[in-house]
User: Fold this.
Amino acid sequence: MSKGKFDKAFRSLRRLRGSDIRAAKELYYIHAQIVQEHILIEQSAVATNANVFTRFIELFKIPRLRRAVQASGIVMIAQQMCGSMRNSPP
Assistant:
């Protein structure tokens, strides 16, 4: 749907839901969510058409993204530590 293929999305939803009304309702909800996401992206400080380096720098400049990067790094380190202890020979 984000690429504008509404008819294909409707056919898929109709097959999944088994009803034209349910498919149309869900299609509308999905479209409304996509519109809301675009509005939020425009209002945020994230550059949508920036290059890779600018986006990488934003990972550390924007507080919300910085916290997410820190949390994911901690989880990855913890997984590596748990995995290496579990797979070590007796």
